[in-house]
Design brief:
Strand 3 and strand 4 form a beta hairpin. By secondary structure, the chain is an alpha+beta fold. It is 40% helix and 30% strand. The chain contains four helices and four strands; from the N terminus they run ααββαββα.
């Protein structure tokens, strides 16, 4: 597991927030800190042709407080966080350019709910279960904080 990944995501959010035109969004995200991550265990595997798509969900614990934000500000915060998670995981080599992260919600306690869509070449000499297990295990190891 790599606690540096959580810090990389935090830094990415802080840097990405600086370009927002909304001062409230900039203020809220300028001190963003991702403290923990967990996969919620809901993983689906779908094969179409030569490609296999593995989808899993998880939660990041952050200090982001959305309780005083307007709906538009909250949507912008979700977009900044989503792009930051994706960029950080691509930089770590965990996700490829073909993979996607979607932030589905950020609640008032700072819990960021997300979905990761991984595209796996199913022509790899391995069973589907092995592929999905390996990909999810790598994602979990990259995001997990060993101190918890």
């Amino acid at each position: 597991s790599n606690p540096d990944t959580l810090e990389a995501i935090s830094n990415e959010i802080q840097e990405a927030s600086a370009v927002s035109s909304d001062p409230t969004v900039v203020k809220e995200l300028s001190t963003a800190d991702v403290s923990d991550s967990s996969l919620t265990g809901e993983t689906t595997v779908k094969t179409t042709g030569e490609n296999t798509e593995v989808t899993t969900t998880g939660v990041f614990d952050t200090n982001i407080d959305t309780s005083s934000l307007t709906l538009a500000e909250k949507e912008e915060v979700k977009e900044v966080v989503q792009n930051s998670i994706e960029t950080a995981l691509q930089n770590e080599g965990t996700l490829s350019q073909n993979d996607a992260v979607t932030v589905t919600d950020i609640n008032d306690e700072g819990e960021v709910e997300y979905t990761v869509d991984l595209n796996v070449d199913s022509e790899i000499d391995s069973t589907l279960e092995d592929i999905s297990s390996a990909v999810i295990a790598e994602l979990d190891a990259t995001l997990s904080n060993p101190d918890t």
